[in-house]
């Protein structure tokens, strides 16, 4: 029987999935931004509470809280982006399994490895940003934070005093209390100063005070309209002196020298350094974007959801593998710093092991899908002959 034009068989073409890839990348991006915003909010709130506690105790100035908060947040950005990348891929593909979208695509002949391309389109820019943060921006932020802390610690006692709190001098011979500060001028109100001189305890109370600097650079705290009480504790021979003006010398604090710390060193400096600590820090910085890329691939087979086993089983397994990977990196860095492990094995050995685990999970998942197509209920029946 001849073939008519309307009955001719045409070769089937694979489905066009470009639109689906763009939609998948958009969903991954939205989930990643949401997860990153939640994690960043948690980190910012925890760091803000810690810095506010330091500001109340007088260890740092109130005006330095926001600057130190920004430096701390930038230091954590690389790790937060890595976690957000892993969780967003896991949540997006798990949702596709629960809504049976993955079953449809597998039925169309699209294998699990075809999901690597859209996932990496989403992951590679994030990995590049993680590399920039880990190798350049995070060390710079830590260096600036340490320099700012040293600047705050080198302030004099009066400048470091916080209104409403008692502050002890660095020489431990004076205690200051300032009730309020006039930001528009160099004056403070309701000052309390207690000092010990020649074995006698002296207490001065003044309504206001100001700071003066002499031409030679000496600085003084000038108390105005106050009273001085001087005597020995436990005895009655106290002297009470009222004064209109009393000057207290402010001892200058020499700035602290910067202590060498590998985490604040730039990446070129680490490459020139040959110490064990520098090798360990370099392994950590280079390994962070590598681990983010491997975790992005690992999330593809981990996102499989079996309705019979429960929807949260894959999330538990993903958390366990992430914690194992993270702890393995930390342990290897510690061993490199102690000289128990070579830097090459500490960097490439751990990531090669996790890459092998990722490949094995891909093969296991693809083999499981192949067996289900051959022997499961959804087996393709042979076409009947005409």
Overview of the structural elements:
This protein has about 375 residues and is of the alpha+beta class. The protein folds into 2 domains: about 15-155 and about 260-375, no CATH class; about 160-250, no CATH class. The protein has 9 helices and 6 strands; from the N terminus they run αααααββββββαααα. It has a 6-stranded antiparallel β-sheet with strand order 1-2-3-4-5-6. Strand 2 and strand 3 (about 185-195) form a beta hairpin. Helix 2 (about 65-100) packs antiparallel against helix 4 (about 115-155), helix 7 (about 275-300) runs antiparallel to helix 8 and helix 8 (about 315-340) runs antiparallel to helix 9. The radius of gyration is 33 Å and the shape is elongated. The termini are close together. Residues about 1-15 and about 375-385 have low confidence and may be disordered.
Notable features of this structure?
alpha+beta, six-stranded antiparallel β-sheet, disordered C terminus
Number of domains: 2
Please report which band the strand proportion falls in: under 5%, 5-15%, 15-25%, 25-35%, 35-45% or over 45%.
Answer: 15-25%
Q: Which residues form runs of ≥5 with pLDDT under 50?
A: 1-15, 377-386
Indicate the mean pLDDT: 77
How far do the termini sit from each other?
12 Å
Number of helices: 9
| Overall geometric form | elongated
Strand order of the largest sheet: 1-2-3-4-5-6
For the biggest sheet, the summary is: 6 strands, antiparallel
Oligomer: single chain
- Kindly name the structural category: alpha+beta
Count of beta strands: 6
Overall helicity: 55-70%
**Cα-atom radius of gyration:** 33 Å
The string of secondary-structure elements, in order, is HHHHHEEEEEEHHHH
């Amino acid at each position: 029987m001849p073939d008519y034009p309307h009955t001719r068989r045409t070769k089937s073409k694979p489905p066009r999935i470009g639109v689906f890839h763009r939609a998948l990348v958009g969903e991954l991006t939205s989930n990643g931004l949401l997860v990153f915003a939640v994690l960043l909010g948690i980190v910012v709130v925890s760091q803000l509470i810690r810095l506010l506690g330091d500001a109340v105790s007088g260890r740092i100035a109130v005006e330095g809280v926001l600057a130190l908060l920004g430096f701390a947040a930038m230091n954590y950005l690389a790790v937060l982006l890595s976690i957000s990348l892993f969780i967003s891929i896991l949540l997006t593909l798990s949702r596709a399994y629960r809504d049976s979208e993955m079953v449809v695509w597998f039925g169309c002949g699209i294998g699990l490895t075809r999901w690597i391309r859209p996932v990496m389109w989403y992951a590679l820019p994030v990995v590049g940003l993680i590399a920039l943060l880990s190798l350049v921006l995070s060390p710079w932020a830590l260096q600036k934070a340490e320099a700012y802390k040293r600047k705050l610690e080198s302030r004099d006692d009066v400048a470091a005093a916080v209104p409403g709190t008692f502050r002890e001098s660095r020489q431990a011979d004076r205690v200051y209390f300032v009730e309020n500060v006039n930001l528009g001028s160099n004056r403070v109100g309701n000052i309390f100063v207690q000092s010990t001189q020649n074995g006698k305890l002296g207490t001065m109370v003044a309504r206001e005070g100001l700071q003066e600097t002499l031409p030679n650079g000496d600085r003084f705290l000038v108390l105005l309209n106050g009273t001085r009480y001087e005597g020995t504790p436990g005895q009655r021979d106290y002297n009470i002196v009222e004064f209109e003006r009393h000057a207290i010398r402010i001892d200058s604090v020499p700035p602290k020298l910067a202590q060498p710390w590998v985490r604040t060193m730039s990446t070129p400096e680490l490459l020139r350094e040959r110490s064990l600590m520098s090798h360990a820090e370099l392994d950590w910085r280079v390994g962070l974007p590598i681990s983010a890329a491997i975790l992005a691939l690992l999330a593809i087979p981990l996102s499989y959801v079996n309705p019979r086993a429960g929807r949260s089983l894959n999330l538990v397994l993903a958390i366990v593998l992430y914690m194992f990977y993270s702890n393995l990196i930390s342990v290897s860095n510690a061993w490199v710093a102690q000289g128990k492990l070579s830097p090459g094995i500490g960097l490439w050995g751990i990531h090669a092991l996790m890459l092998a685990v990722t490949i094995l999970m891909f093969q296991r998942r693809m083999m499981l899908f192949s067996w289900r197509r051959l022997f499961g209920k959804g087996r393709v029946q042979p076409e009947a002959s005409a």
